[in-house]
Amino acid sequence: MRITVTVDGTEYSDEVEPRTLLVHYLRETLGKVGTVIGCDTSNCGACTVHLNGHSVKSCSVLAVQADGCEITTIEGLARDGQLHPVQQAFHDNHALQCGYCTPGMIMQSIDLLADNPDPDEKAVREGLEGNLCRCTGYQNIVRAVRDAAHHMSPGAGPEAERVSEDVRAPSAIGGE
Amino acid sequence: MTTTEETPIGYGRMHRKEDVRFLRGHGTYVDDVTLPGMLHGAVLRSPYAHAKIVSIDTSAAEAHPKVRAVITGETLAGLNLAWMPTLSNDVQAVLATDKVRFQGQEVAFVVAEDRYSARDALELIDVDYEALEPVVDARKALDPDAPVIRDDVEGRTDNHIFDWETGDKARTDEVFANAEVVTTQDMLYPRVHPAPLETCGSVADMDPITGKLTVWTTTQAPHAHRTLYALVAGLPEHKIRVISPDIGGGFGNKVGIYPGYVCSIVGSILTGKPVKWVEDRSENLMSTSFARDYHMHGEIASTKDGKILGIRVKVLADHGAFNGTAQPTKYPAGFFGVFTGSYDIEAAHAEVTGVYTNKAPGGVAYACSFRITEAVYLVERLVDVLAHELDMDPARLRMKNLLQPDQFPYQSKTGWEYDSGDYPRTLAKALDLVHYDDLRAEQAKRRESGSQELMGIGVAFFTEAVGAGPRNKMDILGLGMADGAELRIHPTGKAVLRLSCQTQGQGHETTFAQIVAEELGISPEDIDVVHGDTDQTPFGLGTYGSRSTPVSGAATAVVARKVRERAKIVASAMLEVGADDLEWEKGRWFVKGDPGAGKSIQDIAMAAHSSLELPEGIEGQLDATCVYNPPNLTYPFGAYVCVVDVDAGTGQVKVRDFVAVDDCGVRINPMIVEGQVHGGLADGLGMALMQVMAFDEDGNHLGGSFMDYLLPTSMECPSWRLDETVTPSPHHPIGAKGVGESATVGSPAAVVNAVVDALKPYGVRHADMPLTPAAVWCALRGKPFRTDLAIT
């Protein structure tokens, strides 16, 4: 089946088997290996990407279901070499260690902040419940998301990654 | 977070260099590696725990249009690879030939053009099994009528693997015979799994022209893997290159060699193409290294007023179907010998018996520091059980028995020399931070009120032993546990440090650069840390057992000091003064009494590569190598306090507060240490409350996916509260001890002690992990159950 998708701002058109999982299409057909796989039961969230602006676990979506959709992966967040405020906050708050859950965690965090621009600790923990991390004990991730919220507000809400030009300028917090 | 006395070296809380790529999805993990012509492998696994293989028909799979090879045990037997040696001098089936010995065991390997086709072809393989009775319960493994699992070994008539003991039995028996109080407790440290978020995998590329094998693989010990492949496969070692790229967590899961790695190599040899094998989650949980599974019978002797006199232990260790446990050769029960913990006692003795069962191999993994998780859990539960018997406060009982600072270096009754410690101070700090007395008052009030929300306070004080180890005592398959480091300063004063250890997220690329920076005054940003590629790095045994800072960290400081001394000679030639007239300040050598006359390390590096005339015997350039053979382990320690609320109606446990005071000596990067502790605390909480790999009576694995094997999420974890004390290791070049596993080692006992403390009004003295709502609910009703078996 031929599908046409826009991934990180570039349009692709490919023949895929109907059974091909979106995560495998991203990784193996497009070479977008920043999105990774951590389980086989949809629990871990390491494969989280944005599908039309909302987070999905790409291991639980067929590539054919994404036909005509816009997808953003971790690789499409930083623009002009500058990190998205959530990426920057993960760095600043040591919210990653092995880095394997990080892409999914960041994509989920952005979605969470789109729903709730200033979440308290409890709201962040609830919002990230679908993303497992084996290294950080979550604490620094929670800190990072709240830190990012403070740097992104106001107005970093809906579809945060797509309005990045607007939010990014005032939220530059020191580069890498 | 309170950080009252951190004394980091150099750049302290420096943000991580490796984040740059991970944040953007530009890490390179094994499954990200793609090579021209690369094929994909998949493993067919046994549905039975114990069964004879009558026949394997691979013809339909071979006929699949996208399949390039189907490998069975018979194929491997022709290459003498059907069995491989384990890290415990046993052998393990790579692909089963005679029979299968655990559910999930490797039976056949398909190589196909893509991963979907490889999985399709697995369905086309027809294996005829004849089911055999399995051994599921370790306590029945040595029964006279137990089925013999390892009949591959001629003459073997039982499931016994080893007996090992430590301590003075006669003296311990005497202490127990004369003690006023003797308390006994059976406890199970159930089988769990490290479950790194990235599973195990490899990409093997045998170049048929050059005869060189390159293997990208998830290994914590790339050099040891290279040597083992050379010994097993008969390939010359210089023709094997093992590359451990970015690793998505290890936690001890990625120390050993798994059948999938060997199959990908054989697949590449047979097809002449690179072959990738990446296991899925259920394969990871069912077949790779489990952790724990110690059935422990502990006894503790004391006086009536709570002076602990002795500890006596018998352990039954379930090792699964093959003894693949990863530990130094002379330590079949790892470092369980440190079970005397943090206490000054008169005598101790332990016996450990290892047995085979129809389960996956493993044992040492999941931040256990070679069985110290088990040792610490045992002693910290025993102390609490004793407190229960004596009706003493468990924190006061500990304070009364802790080793005192002036006793270090302390020779334990089981032969371990603890390097340094100031235990009472650390415990006092944790009790202050958690407001211990207020909590006890609140608890008393709660109990008086008859509230159904039970409150529990759990204390654990642990001593770790990490940094294996002195090579005259510790080796893995004959390879002494020393580690190399190479440091080269480029002409422009930038540096490259090459290490034998292999980070899996612990931040080595940052912290090891910080050590060099501290020693030489070169910015950490100007120091590249290279690891994981056996063609590019010096030999060493890798990262596990929290050994990187103790061994490779020491090697790094020593190699930097060697470079500094070389730089001194070059500087003396530059400044035309004797080397003895020079003095070092960070980053430069200068003339004593004339601070203006000096040369920076960068100037010296350029001069060392220039036409400058150097003293005879000095070769020029600026580099050094070191092999660090640690004189002893390091013994970090910590005091943890956990506060829980337990719903008596449902058995639900909620961790309200967790305070952890760790002392790992000098902290290289406090930010990274705290991250290590956070992660380890989540592990410990998960083990105490959620995680177990249970089996049913047929040997079916009941924890084979994340639907059943529960890991803590952001919701179960509280906000950890950390603090620290700093008691440097006297024998380590920068006074640093390991810390990576401390929290995993120390926290389960704190959580369990807290839950059991909450249940104290119900007369509960012990309940086994994991303390799930069901387990707690049963314990409350006086019916605790075994958590490792679905049917008891």
UniProtKB/TrEMBL annotation, chain A:
Q: Does the keyword Oxidoreductase apply?
A: yes
Name of the protein in its database record = (2Fe-2S)-binding protein
Its taxonomic path starts at:
Bacteria, Bacillati, Actinomycetota, Actinomycetes, Pseudonocardiales
Q: Which domain of life is it from?
A: Bacteria
Question: Annotated region Disordered: where?
Answer: 150-176
Query: What are the alphabetically sorted keywords of the record?
Result: 2Fe-2S, Iron, Iron-sulfur, Metal-binding, Oxidoreductase
Residues in 2Fe-2S ferredoxin-type domain copies: 1-77
Q: Which SUPFAM superfamilies match?
A: 2Fe-2S ferredoxin-like (SSF54292), CO dehydrogenase ISP C-domain like (SSF47741)
**Pfam annotation, one family:** Fer2
UniProt pathway: Alkaloid degradation; nicotine degradation
Which segments show compositional bias classed as Basic and acidic residues?
159-168
Q: Which GO terms describe its molecular function?
A: 2 iron, 2 sulfur cluster binding; metal ion binding; oxidoreductase activity
Automatic annotation (TrEMBL), chain B:
Q: Which domain of life is it from?
A: Bacteria
Cofactor(s), by name = Mo-molybdopterin cytosine dinucleotide
Q: Which Pfam families match?
A: Ald_Xan_dh_C, MoCoBD_1, MoCoBD_2
- Has keyword Oxidoreductase? yes
Query: Domain Aldehyde oxidase/xanthine dehydrogenase a/b hammerhead spans what residues?
Result: 24-133
Q: Which UniProt keywords apply?
A: Molybdenum, Oxidoreductase
Q: One MF term in GO for this entry?
A: anaerobic carbon-monoxide dehydrogenase activity
Q: What is this protein called?
A: Carbon-monoxide dehydrogenase large subunit
Q: Which organism's genome codes for this protein?
A: Amycolatopsis alkalitolerans
